[in-house]
Design a protein that fits this description.
The chain is an alpha/beta fold and 493 residues long. The protein has 15 helices and 15 strands. It has helices spanning 3-22, 39-48, 61-66, 83-88, 90-106, 133-146, 181-193, 204-210, 216-219, 237-251, 276-292, 377-387, 404-418, 470-484, 487-490; strands at 25-29, 53-56, 73-78, 110-116, 154-156, 158-160, 164-165, 175-176, 198-201, 227-229, 232-234, 259-264, 304-307, 363-366, 432-435. Helix 11 (276-292) links the parallel strand 12 (259-264) and strand 13. Helix 12 crosses helix 13. The site of one 2-acetamido-2-deoxy-beta-D-glucopyranose has 5 residues, from helix 13.
């Protein structure tokens, strides 16, 4: 074969590789929930809906084990709080890779990427991870090389879109944020030298949330607002933001570094702009645009993306806003919140999680006879809301239309369900009562918690960890022995 046909074949295989790497849609699987769905249920949910990739925030063993032989490609994450240890000693990185990559690959988990940290340069972290992120990345890469995995597992750092900006708002003027520019360029060079990728999380919802003058239509994908940049017209902030990154990379000599969208999505509750209609409009607009394969003006072609998020997480910090617990395309119990065509076998309707069992149809509410001026009322509401989840209460949220009594009931019920309907969780002094009549309204759902006991004990339970059935057996013996234990059994303890 001549030189020319060689390069044609090479070019073609690179193209095929790029196209395959970029095809298929992924999802973020977060686990900051009080009642996680069993890992095998989540993996089936991903597969039933045609997802081909999944992104994890740590190497949770239940999740990783459930992904064995699933056929799903995995981006496995390293939490920020592990960065300093991985940065300080390459041995720690080698152990991490051995335990959390090699052993799973050997058992049929298709790990494609390791995400080192998660948005470590967010301004709210006060530069806490500035010194450790890059050394941790380098040590993880060395460990992957040593383990013989560097050709199949690539490193990346999921970054928040605030690491770059454009002084003029025109994407073509994009560059990295001045205070961390040198660091980012060193990271980008390292990723480029090692076949890594730039992962970025882009949130049009946040643009709308933080800027009251942001044109709402520009957050979505159906036109109605645009920004001109030379010969290019941007009709949505996602493409403009993405191309600001492409320009920043190109300006610094890395215009062809692959980009992955690590998180993109829209929440359904907890803010005036967060509702199922807007979430569906955004996510479907994005999916339709993505499936067209046209890409952006500065990066035509398919794009590798992970939706944020698969399932709601009721224990996420609400410091960024009350919407933070409502990013899922599925609710806490794996039921779809709206129709979404992912361009996969799902053909327009999301398939709900299978094999979910619920606690009894029982709710905890404010007693009809309770007085709203009862002194015990304010501290009870505060207690319930601080220990459960009241993010669906508030201006223009799903339960924002409740009256004061409804509000109180909502808080009480949230606490009761989060505590697995334990009797003492509905004992607000003289104020609460359980009922079998569903207090839900047309928009406001008073949830019944899923029964996680049969699968894995909830994190908040007396016995920690995911030790079932061992822990339940122990617990059984414990109770049994406590009351009427034959001495030969007692001897076991
Ligand atoms: C593997 O990952 C888990 C979950 O992120 C973590 O707790 C554990 O420390 C890691 N193992 C090693 C050896 O670093
Ligand atoms: C960051 O710094 C600010 C101001 O110095 C402080 O109020 C805040 O608590 C710090 N946050 C963290 C996460 O350290
Ligand atoms: C219900 O509670 C929310 C959140 O605490 C509050 O914003 C709202 O004003 C309350 N509604 C009524 C009618 O008291």
């Amino acid at each position: 074969m001549g030189r020319r046909s060689h390069s044609v074949v090479l070019g073609l295989s690179i193209w095929v590789c790029l196209v395959t790497a970029g095809s298929g849609i992924g999802a973020n699987w977060g686990t900051q929930t009080s009642h996680p769905l069993p890992a095998d249920v989540v993996v089936r949910l991903l597969k039933d809906n045609g997802f081909q990739k999944v992104k994890l925030f740590d190497a949770d063993s239940a999740s990783m084990n459930a992904l064995k032989k699933s056929g799903l490609e995995v981006m496995v994450g390293i939490p920020n709080d592990m960065l300093s240890s991985l940065a300080s000693n390459v041995k720690n990185a080698e152990e991490w890779v051995s335990k959390n990559v090699s052993s799973y690959i050997d058992n049929g988990v298709l790990i494609r990427y390791v995400a080192v940290g998660n948005e470590p340069f967010l301004e709210t972290y006060n530069n806490s991870f500035i010194g450790t992120t890059f050394p941790a990345l380098q040590n993880v890469q060395s460990a992957l090389i040593k383990a013989g995995l560097s050709s199949r597992v690539k490193v990346t750092i999921p970054l928040n879109a605030d690491v770059y900006q454009s002084p003029t708002e025109r994407p073509s003027d994009g560059d990295f944020r001045a205070d961390i520019r040198d660091l980012i360029i060193n990271i980008v060079k390292f990723l480029s030298d090692n076949g890594g990728v730039f992962t970025v999380n882009i949130y049009p919802f946040i643009s709308l949330y933080i800027d009251p003058n942001f044109p709402p239509a520009y957050a979505f994908f159906d036109g109605g607002s645009s920004v001109a940049d030379g010969a290019i017209t941007y009709t949505n902030v996602f493409e403009a933001n993405h191309d600001t990154l492409v320009s920043a990379l190109a300006r610094n000599g890395y215009g062809t570094l692959p980009i992955i969208i690590g998180e993109i999505g829209w929440p359904t509750d907890g803010n005036v702009n967060a509702n199922p209609a807007n979430a569906q409009k955004f996510n479907q607009g994005f999916m339709t645009w993505l499936l067209s394969g046209k890409g952006t003006a500065l990066r035509p072609g398919p794009m590798d993306t992970y939706l944020f998020s698969l399932i709601d997480e009721d224990e996420k910090s609400i410091q960024p806003g009350n919407f933070e617990r409502h990013w899922g395309i599925f609710a806490y119990d794996g039921t779809p919140k709206y129709a979404l065509n992912l361009g996969t076998s799902n053909s327009g309707t999301l398939v709900k999680a299978r094999g979910i069992s619920y606690l009894e149809r029982k709710w905890c509410v404010l007693k009809a006879s309770a007085s709203l001026s009862d002194k015990e009322l304010p501290p009870s509401i505060t207690y319930a809301c601080e220990n459960a989840d009241c993010t669906s209460l508030g201006y223009m949220t799903s339960c924002g239309g409740l009256d004061v009594r409804g509000n109180v009931s909502y808080a009480f019920n949230s606490y009761y369900q989060k505590n697995d309907q334990e009797e003492q969780a509905c004992r607000f002094p003289g104020l609460s009562v359980t009922t079998t009549t569903d207090p839900s309204t047309s928009t406001c759902k008073f949830n019944i918690m899923i029964d996680t006991f049969g699968a894995a004990p909830p994190k908040s339970s007396l016995f920690p960890g995911k030790l079932f059935p061992a822990s339940s057996v122990l617990l059984f013996f414990f109770y049994y022995c406590f009351f009427s234990c034959p001495s030969f059994l007692l001897a076991l303890f």
